[in-house]
Structure formats: C-alpha cells, structure tokens
C-alpha cells in the first residue's frame, strides 16, 4: 500500500542528515511531493540531490527559533504527513547541567515539535487522515549516565504524543512514535569513536543481537507509518532496538 503515498504531500523535519535525510530519500521513491527542512541549507540541498526527482521543496528553518517555526507553518501547503526527525544528543552528568543545556536540548527535542504542530493546526495545514511520526528513543525506558536531559526531553515528547493522538483522532489524524536504540549516524560514529577504543566498541556492539541499527531501518518504519498501510494505528509506541532490551549481553 505504499503507492498510497504517491499523491500525498509529506513534511520531513531534520532532513539535512541521519534518519531525516534517509527518510526523505526513501520517501521520494513513493511520494512526488516532499517538503524537507532543517537549518543547514547546503546539507538540505545535498539531500535533495539524493532524492528521486519530483515536486519537492526545500525550506531552510531553524526549529529552535519560534519565528522560523511560524514562518515554516505559514509557507508550506497543506500536508498529509509529517516525519519529525529533528533531534539533539547532549550528554551532561546531572551535577553539571546548566540552564543553557536544558534550553538547548528541550527546544530541539521537544518544543520544536510542540510549537510546529500548534502552528500547523492554527493555519489548518494538516489534512484529514494525515499521519504524524515522532522520533523518540529507547533511552526513555533505559537510563544511562549523562542522559538526564536527552531522556527527559524524549519522555516529554512521548507524553505529548499520547495526548495529541487522542485530541486529533476525531479528525482521523494519526500520531505514532518510534523508539529506536543506537543507529549508525554521524553523531553515533563521532561519539563512539571519541569515547571508546576499537576493542570496547566491539564489546559494546555485542549487546545488540541484531547489530547496531542503520538509518534505513528507522526510515522503513517511518514510511510505513506515513502510508495507508498503517491507517488503523495511532498512539502506538514502537520499540526498535535490535534485541538490546531482550537481556542479551554477551561477553568475550
């Protein structure tokens, strides 16, 4: 039923890299009208070049700025789906958390979604039967050292999504959340390589029975949730962790 995407108009936020870029590229195989946005213009244009040609649109917007969020909502046409892939990881131990850290992480991971959705609804930009996909994290269920800000911002997004799903259901607008574990993006590679040696990396990756995820793995599920194939799903939280939380923790 992916052919149902062909004449839809889909918004992908955070499309300049990682999961957002991969989602836009995959979507372009099925959808002719994709709006990609992020704050880095060059990287957005690089994403566009990787996409199958269509009536796609590039809009540069920094979703940490409420004025740019409103401009984005005003500028775009009515949409049938939205994949919110904007996110930021900022490891900070609890004792070192400062207001600037809190504001940075929550503005990116939580408030960007809240403000943008509010404006999309204000300007009647969400068509009936639309589908919204938020990207959270498996870390909301499994804490880690230094992750207080990141996990709490994603937990806030999850709680928000539950209420949004309830409020928008009468309009047949669906809201679902993905909870991926570690995925091989540039952020992951840079973080791991800076913190671990090769032996430690291999030991850590053994905790994933199916291996570390790829952006394509998450993009596949996003496309499914945006299509009519998932038309009976809303308020659903989908864990994607390669078996990490099954309890496997192999040692040498």
Question: What this model shows, in words?
Answer:
By secondary structure, the chain is an alpha/beta fold. It has one domain (2-239): NAD(P)-binding Rossmann-like Domain (Rossmann fold). The chain has 8 helices and 7 strands; from the N terminus they run E-H-E-H-E-H-E-H-E-H-E-H-H-H-E. The chain is globular, with a radius of gyration of 18 Å. The protein starts with 8 loop residues before the first strand and ends in a 12-residue tail after the last strand.
Keywords for this entry:
alpha/beta, 7 strands, 8 helices, 252 residues, seven-stranded parallel β-sheet, 42% helix, Rossmann fold
What is the general shape?
Answer: globular
Number of domains: 1
Quickly give the CATH architecture: 3-Layer(aba) Sandwich
Query: Quick one: how many beta strands?
Result: 7
pLDDT < 50 stretches: none
Determine Rg (CA atoms, Å): 18 Å
Sheet bearing the most strands, described? Answer: 7 strands, parallel
Helix content: 40-55%
**Main sheet: strand order:** 3-2-1-4-5-6-7
Give the number of helices. Answer: 8
In sequence order, what are the helices and strands, one letter per element?
EHEHEHEHEHEHHHE
- Rounded average pLDDT: 93
Fold blueprint:
Elements: E1 9-13, H1 18-27, E2 33-38, H2 41-50, E3 57-60, H3 66-75, E4 79-84, H4 99-122, E5 126-135, H5 148-168, E6 174-180, H6 186-195, H7 198-205, H8 215-226, E7 237-240
Parallel strand pairs: 1-2, 1-4, 2-3, 4-5, 5-6, 6-7
Summarize the structure.
It is built from eight helices and seven strands; from the N terminus they run E-H-E-H-E-H-E-H-E-H-E-H-H-H-E. The chain is an alpha/beta fold and 252 residues long. The chain has a single domain, classed as Rossmann fold.
């Amino acid at each position: 039923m992916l052919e149902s995407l062909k004449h839809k108009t889909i918004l992908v936020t955070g499309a300049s890299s990682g999961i957002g870029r991969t989602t836009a590229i995959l979507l372009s195989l099925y959808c002719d009208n994709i709006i990609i946005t992020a704050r880095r213009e060059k990287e957005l244009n690089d994403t566009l070049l990787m996409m199958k040609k269509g009536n796609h649109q590039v809009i540069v917007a920094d979703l940490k700025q409420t004025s740019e969020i409103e401009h984005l909502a005003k500028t775009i046409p009515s949409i049938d789906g939205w994949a919110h892939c904007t996110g930021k990881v900022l490891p900070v131990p609890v004792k070192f958390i400062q207001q600037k850290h809190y504001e940075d992480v929550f503005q990116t991971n939580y408030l960007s979604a809240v403000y943008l959705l509010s404006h999309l609804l204000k300007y009647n930009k969400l068509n009936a039967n639309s589908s919204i996909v938020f990207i959270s994290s498996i870390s909301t269920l499994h804490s880690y050292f230094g992750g207080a800000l990141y996990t709490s911002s994603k937990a806030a997004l999850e709680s928000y999504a539950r209420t949004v799903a309830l409020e928008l259901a009468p309009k047949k607008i669906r809201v679902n959340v993905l909870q991926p574990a570690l995925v091989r993006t540039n952020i992951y590679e840079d973080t791991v390589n800076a913190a671990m040696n090769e032996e430690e990396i291999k030991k850590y990756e053994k905790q994933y029975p199916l291996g570390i995820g790829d952006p394509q793995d998450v993009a596949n599920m996003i496309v499914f949730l945006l299509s009519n194939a998932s038309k009976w799903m809303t308020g659903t939280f989908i864990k994607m962790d390669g078996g990490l939380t099954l309890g496997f923790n192999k040692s040498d």
